[in-house]
Fold this sequence. Notes:
By secondary structure, this protein is an alpha/beta fold. The chain is built from six helices and 14 strands. It has one domain (8-360): D-Amino Acid Oxidase, Chain A, domain 2 (2-Layer Sandwich), CATH 3.30.9. The strands form two sheets. An eight-stranded mixed beta sheet has the order 4-5-3-9-10-11-8-12. It has a six-stranded mixed beta sheet with strand order 6-2-1-7-14-13, sandwiched between helices. A hairpin with a 7-residue loop joins strand 9 (219-224) and strand 10 (232-239). The protein has helices at residues 16-28, 69-84, 143-156, 169-176, 264-277, 345-360; strands spanning 8-12, 33-38, 91-100, 116-120, 132-141, 160-163, 181-184, 201-212, 219-224, 232-239, 246-255, 287-299, 304-312, 327-335. Helix content is 22%, strand content 31%. The longest helix has 16 residues, at 69-84. Bound molecules: flavin-adenine dinucleotide. Flavin-adenine dinucleotide binds at residues 12-18, 37-40, 52-54, 56-60, 165-166, 185-187, 189, 193, 206, 208, 238, 250-251, 294, 296-297, 335, 337-343.
Amino acid sequence: TTTSDAPHVVVLGAGVIGLSSAYVLSERYPTHRFTIVARDLPEESDLTNQAWASPWAGADWSPIGDYEEKKYKRELITFNKLWDMIPSGLVRILPSRICYTDPLDDAHIWYKDLVRDFRVLKPEEVPAGALTGVAFNTVSLNPQLYLPWLKGESDKRGVNFVRKKVYSIGEAAEIAGSKGVVINATALGARSLIGVEDKAVYPIRGQTILAYAPDCQEFLSYPLGLSSIPTGEATYMIPRPAPPGHVLIGGTYQEDSWDLSINFDTARNIWNRCLELAPALRNPETKILGHNVGLRPARRGGARIEAEWFKLPLESEFLPTPEGEKYDFLVIHAYGFGPAGYQGSWGAAEEVAELFKEHLKL
Ligand code: FAD
């Protein structure tokens, strides 16, 4: 049970990163008070709002970029946690095939022990246009169901939700109280949150098509260059665990594009590329359910999971503060996950919890 003088933690942001962090922290520190303060919440019409990224993801685990130790650890924790959630029905096993335009070597398949049932495709299994390929089992989820589930878990633990756009770290700290802590999971919002103003944060525009395609049961993505970082386009299909037959078809990967409008030439192009990939899309029952655009909240230099002590109030808030009345305030940043917020979410929440423990000497 919490009391009103229990340490107060404000989680700024209710995307998959803020919600997962609140989940792990509130489980580990049941006597603390938790409030999630966010402009967009995982409920009602916000789930179709383009101002935040989390409603628009596929979402599955897939290899993005080269091997990095921290990323590997974060994604391994997340993969295993999601795998354990399969019996809940929120997560499904997703057979996958990724094909490459280059010869394979070990460095390029750094993820072979992270996923399940990994194997290299035989030459006769590799489709035209690619040189090599791999098959494995991964996980996928439907953000439209997963985000409300995460919120429900926080509700059960007594976490408060407040819908509010906060303009500065100082304002968030005021909500937390001078002995409180803020977890900054504002994603693209970190660019303009006063006190953070992180201009390394940028959008990667993702246009996708949501389809009912009951015969598509595999994650397919190819052909890719070996670093697996798409440029401009990313061709993939992500069947979701529910509702039955729902598949997210992509897509684009447009760095620094803030354009939230749907481009129908792009949509046609995505559809045609995926038709080549998956003849299963030709099933006459296939229907287009929607066209989406979402902005992946990326950061030059990679995601930032870091503790920062602020001296508040901030000079930059232009507040007429009397001399000598500043106090130290802890903020733990967790933003900038770009195309990989879901697949790193549980690991990121663990890292936030480690920083929390270390800096509050718990
Ligand atoms: P967000 O979901 O953007 O949440 C930010 C939160 O902060 C929101 O609640 C917002 O309202 C709040 N906020 C911001 N500023 C303020 C403020 N000043 N005051 C109050 N609140 C504020 N990832 C995967 O792992 N796998 C995939 O298959 C995948 N596919 C994707 C496909 C597409 C097309 C797109 C667009 C993304 C995809 N992603 C995928 C990426 C994933 O969606 C993101 O990495 C993830 O959602 C980021 O979560 P987040 O919590 O950091 O940010």
